Structures are given as structure tokens and as C-alpha cells.
From TrEMBL:
One of its GO terms (biological process) is protein refolding. CDD domains: Hsp33. This is Hsp33 family molecular chaperone HslO. It comes from Wenzhouxiangella limi. The lineage of its organism: Bacteria, Pseudomonadati, Pseudomonadota, Gammaproteobacteria, Chromatiales. SUPFAM superfamilies: Hsp33 domain, HSP33 redox switch-like. Gene3D superfamilies: helix hairpin bin, Hsp33 domain, HSP33 redox switch-like. Pfam families: HSP33. GO terms for cellular component: cytoplasm. InterPro entries: Heat_shock_Hsp33 (IPR000397), Heat_shock_Hsp33_C (IPR016154), Heat_shock_Hsp33_N (IPR016153), Hsp33_helix_hairpin_bin_dom_sf (IPR023212). Keywords: Chaperone, Cytoplasm, Disulfide bond, Redox-active center, Zinc.
Length: 294
């Protein structure tokens, strides 16, 4: 079956390394359709989606992996995440009061001095949540994540991404953890990896591209895994967020004449809570199934 959006990987067992290919078309279209993004912003968000999708190839359990960038600069937040089932979402927001907006390809200038990259692995089966928090390095999501793997995990990682309007594709080459890798073999893989052109990455399917790059290497090909846009927000989850604000805040909301409306930043779904709903939350009860505003 041919997928529009998918991951596919190969393993170099004798060398102790892997290469993963990702293609995103419908996912990028759906994410961009839910926000008012200029073309350069779309490129930045698309690259973040490609990187987090590639990282998700390492998930060995049910859960999500996320990439988040926060800083004091005009780029207030960049966030993308992907589940083990292939569900992707992402968003970015700007704060124009923080100064003039640099071009998005100058990521450190956009985020500001002291900006932070956070990578999170959040299991859904009761496992322990893990976070890596480091200062931002690099001027793209790929450079930032590669620097994190190199410095914090001692796991050499290379990205090779290509974006075109509302579609993108990319490759990730990574050493396997706890596997000795001969320096000469690793250097050879990097050299072959770097020969991929932008057009090849965008136009070729993963199997063809990786075979073309590594045809002389011993490798094992894995089947493709489909990806799709998916936002797990729900009325129940929004209710939990409202309860976490505290009793006083809920009482103030309930006293307002108009219903409280909460909008998901990822998919723009709106959830409305009237006075009865908020009062039910105050008493620890589930609110009535209220209207969902699209």
C-alpha cells in the first residue's frame, strides 16, 4: 500500500546504526489549515513535524514524544508531537510585543537569548515520564535536536530535511545506543547520507531513496508505518485543565454571564462550559455533555 504520510527505516546491524525516512503531505496540510501561517512559518513548523516524526521511530511503547521550544523572543512557542500510533500535531505562536520578528530560519534570534529546548517522552501505559531540557543550539529544529543527541545522549545523529510549500520529507541517520560502531563505517554512512539531494528526498519513496544511498551496505528494511494528523484533545481533558486552575478561579468563571470557551491550540476545536458545567466541576462531578464549537 502506498501512503502519502509515512515512516520507513533500515537497520545496519553490522555497523550499529539506522536510517529513517519520513514523508509528510496531508499532515502538513492539515496542521497549516488550522493556523494562519506565512510561508516561512509553515516551513519552520513543517521541519519540527518532520523531526518529531523521525524521533518517534524510536518509541518502543505506547505514548507520545514531543519537541517544545520556548524563549523570551518573538517566537513564543514552537511545539510538535507524535504518538507511537503515528498521530501528529503541531503549532507555533508569536508575541509581537517582544520585539521585531526575525526570519524563522534564524531560530535562535526568533526564540531569544536563553531559550530552552524540551524533549518529552510521555508513556500512556503508566510508565515513567521522561524529559530532556537543554539550552537551544542551532538555527533549525533539526540542528537543535541533533545537538541535543550529540551532547546529552552521546548519540551522533544527522538530519537531512526538505520542505516544499505544504509537503516535506526527510532522513535521519543515527548510531544505535550501546552498540560499538567503527569510526570508519560511521564516517562512510555519513558521507553516503549527505549525497541525498533535495529533489531526491522530496520525490523518491523511502525504500528507493535509501536503496540508492546505501546499495553497497548490508541493511535490513522495515515496512512503512502510516502517519496522520491527530489531536487527542477532548472535553474530559479540558475539564481536567479547568479543575487544575483551582476552586477560586472556577467560581469566578461560573459567576460570569457568558459561558467559558476553551480553544485547543492544535486543532482549533472549541469547548464551551456554561454555569451548570462549571458548578458541576466545582462539586467534583462530570459536567453535562455540552456543545462543541468548531
Amino acid at each position: 500500500m502506498v501512503y502519502k504520510d509515512y515512516l520507513q527505516g533500515i537497520l545496519f546491524e553490522e555497523i550499529g546504526a539506522r536510517c529513517v525516512f519520513v514523508r509528510l503531505e496531508r499532515v502538513v496540510e492539515e496542521v497549516l489549515a488550522r493556523g494562519d501561517y506565512a510561508s516561512d512559518e509553515a516551513r519552520l513548523l513543517g521541519e519540527a513535524l518532520l523531526v518529531v516524526a523521525l524521533m518517534s521511530s524510536g518509541l518502543k511503547f505506547s505514548g507520545r514524544i514531543s519537541l517544545q521550544l520556548r524563549g523570551p523572543g518573538p517566537l513564543k512557542l514552537l511545539l510538535a508531537d507524535c504518538s507511537d500510533a503515528g498521530g501528529l500535531r503541531g503549532m507555533l505562536s508569536w508575541d509581537e510585543d517582544r520585539g521585531e520578528r526575525p526570519p524563522p530560519d534564524q531560530l535562535r534570534a526568533c526564540a531569544g537569548a536563553g531559550s530552552i529546548l524540551t524533549l518529552t517522552v510521555d508513556p500512556t501505559d503508566g510508565g515513567q515520564r521522561w524529559q530532556g531540557i537543554v539550552p537551544l543550539e542551532g538555527d533549525s529544529p533539526a540542528e537543535a535536536v541533533a545537538a541535543y543527541f550529540e551532547r546529552s545522549e552521546q548519540l551522533p545523529t544527522r538530519f537531512h530535511l526538505a520542505m516544499s510549500k505544504s509537503r516535506g520529507a526527510g532522513l535521519m541517520l543515527q548510531r544505535m545506543p550501546d552498540r560499538p560502531t567503527d569510526g570508519e563505517d560511521w564516517n562512510r554512512l555519513q558521507q553516503l547520507f549527505a549525497t541525498a539531494s533535495r529533489d531526491e528526498i522530496l520525490d523518491l519513496d523511502g525504500e528507493t531513496l535509501m536503496r540508492r544511498l546505501f546499495h553497497e551496505e548490508s541493511r535490513r528494511l522495515f515496512p512503512p508505518r502510516e502517519l496522520a494528523f491527530h489531536c487527542p484533545c477532548s472535553r474530559d481533558r479540558v475539564s481536567e485543565v479547568l479543575v487544575s486552575l483551582g476552586e477560586e478561579e472556577l467560581r469566578q468563571m461560573a459567576a460570569e454571564p457568558e459561558p467559558t470557551e476553551v480553544r485547543c491550540q492544535f486543532c482549533n476545536q472549541r469547548y464551551r462550559f456554561d454555569r451548570l458545567d462549571l458548578t458541576a466541576l466545582l462539586h467534583g462531578e462530570a459536567p453535562q455533555i455540552g456543545p462543541t464549537v468548531h
